[in-house]
Amino acid sequence: MRNVKWGVLGCAAFAKNTAIPAMQRANGVELYGIASRDIAKAEAFAKEFGFTKAYGSYEEMLADPEIEAIYNPLPNGMHPEWTIKTVQAGKHSITEKPFASNVEEMIAVHEVTQKAGVKVMEAFMWRFHPMNLRARQWVQEGAIGKLRLFRTAFTFSITRATNIRLDSALAGGGIMDVGCYCISEARYFMGGEPEEVFARADIDPEYKVDMLASGSLLFPNGTRALFDCGFELPYR
């Protein structure tokens, strides 16, 4: 198996601390390019992690014919734009969650991807963990009986300060940041899409994003999935 030449869009903390070290350990991965709007930062990353090239803009890296696939850890609100640009450059893409902020963005990415004939995936790494694969198998086989209620929660506390999670212009908020895991997990175990969706969120008056949210998804087989997510603990 030959190595695929990967490029990373931006020098995000998650990329530095988690994704890039994992890519270094993965088979078939060549860390070829790292891009930043600050060339000095890109060069520092290249030196630290062994990237072949550093770029002073995202566009410059996408234009490099040597790059075959892109990992996109940019802020939530930038995912659709740069996934589309990656696809239009003829490169495969793994985009951090959430894949898009609304239905219109998702459809736009889907249409461009279908025309380009490349692979695009949302980076929900937990879907590939053996534990989750086995648990889904048990559900599908009926080993635990008929699944009637599925409940998830993903919450943590954050400081009220400058934070992309609190930036409404960058698709911040609890549902976009952590609630998407709960929703994705329900769809993963159900093997389909809900036919009824209800959610309620507490919108912060200062930051205009949801700090706490709860929701209910009803699937065609009658199973209901409930979720809670947000940035404030304990729950009010």
Structure description:
The chain has 236 residues and is an alpha/beta fold. Helices cover 35% and strands 25% of the residues. The protein has helices spanning 13-25, 39-49, 58-62, 79-88, 103-116, 130-141, 174-190; strands spanning 4-9, 29-35, 53-55, 69-72, 92-95, 120-122, 149-155, 196-203, 210-218, 224-230. A hairpin with a 6-residue loop joins strand 8 (196-203) and strand 9. The protein is globular. 32% of the residues are buried. The mean pLDDT is 94.
* Number of contiguous helices: 7
Number of β-strand runs? 10
- What class do helices, strands and sheet pairing give? alpha/beta
Task: Please write the string of helix (H) and strand (E) elements.
Answer: EHEHEHEHEHEHEHEEE
- Terminal CA distance: 53 Å
Instruction: Tell me the strand order in the biggest sheet.
Output: 3-2-1-4-5-6
Uncertain segments are none
What share of residues are in beta strands? 15-25%
Provide mean pLDDT, rounded. 94
Helix content bin: 25-40%
Largest sheet: 6 strands, parallel
Radius of gyration in whole Å, from Cα?
A: 19 Å
Shape: globular
Question: Topology, pairings included?
Answer:
Blueprint: E1 4-9, H1 13-25, E2 29-35, H2 39-49, E3 53-55, H3 58-62, E4 69-72, H4 79-88, E5 92-95, H5 103-116, E6 120-122, H6 130-141, E7 149-155, H7 174-190, E8 196-203, E9 210-218, E10 224-230
Parallel strand pairs: 1-2, 1-4, 2-3, 4-5, 5-6, 7-10
Antiparallel strand pairs: 8-9, 9-10
Helix pairs in contact: 4-5
